[in-house]
Write a structure and sequence with these properties.
Number of helices: 2
Distance between the termini: 9 Å
Strand order of the largest sheet: 1-2-8-3-6
Number of strands: 10
Shape: globular
Largest sheet: 5 strands, antiparallel
Order of helices and strands: HHEEEEEEEEEE
Helix content: 10-25%
Structural class: alpha+beta
């Protein structure tokens, strides 16, 4: 049986940060340290929230703050799976729990399309911030050809309900979407009998 206590401690600790401040940089800094601690262990995530879908990457909701201040999600990529170029429109943190992910960061070009600014392969234990605005465009893929990769994402809203956009890299054409989630259940963080 999975001991989900590390996730409960993370949620409680991040809630305390957000009770104290709304300053984005403070939240990213303190939240980043908390996420680093959460992903330092790999045995707390229930298997059903780490299962790849053979058709596309999965986004499993682990927790949504009742006031909409943040959400915690596990992203699971099967071999070769990738997101389209997209934005977030809220602050975020990404921590790699298992495997490796390739992140390609883009900026808008003068012609309206996008140009690749930086590409990085992120390994287990990496934690990085996302900031809404001009530097909020990226594409993420599994960097492994033979195994799934899992990352834990924290967003400054209930990300499954946020209107965001994907983009055509060449033309910059925007297509709005609301992602929703890949599962109908969330882990029970509050059962303290286990």
């Amino acid at each position: 049986m999975t001991d989900i206590a590390p996730l409960r401690v993370f949620v409680q600790s991040l809630t305390a940060v957000l009770d104290r401040t709304e300053d984005q940089e403070t939240v990213l800094e303190e939240g980043g340290r908390l996420l680093k601690e959460l992903i330092s262990g790999d045995d707390w995530l229930p298997d059903c929230f780490a299962k790849p879908n053979p058709e596309r990457y999965s986004q499993y909701l682990l927790h949504a703050d009742p006031y909409g201040r943040f959400s915690v999600v596990s992203f699971v990529w099967g071999p070769g799976q990738t997101t389209p170029l997209h934005d977030h429109r809220v602050w975020g943190l990404i921590g790699i729990l298992r495997g490796k992910e390739r992140e390609e960061r883009f900026t808008r070009s003068e012609g309206g399309g996008f140009r690749l600014e930086e590409e990085e392969v992120l390994g287990v234990g990496h934690v990085g911030p996302l900031r809404p605005g001009d530097a909020d465009y990226h594409r993420v893929s599994n960097a492994l050809d033979d195994a799934p990769s899992v990352s834990i994402h924290v967003y400054g809203a209930n990300i499954g309900a946020v209107t965001r956009a994907t983009y055509d890299i060449e033309t910059g054409e925007e297509k709005q979407f609301i992602s929703g989630y890949s599962s109908d259940v969330v882990p029970n963080l509050w059962d303290l009998t286990k």
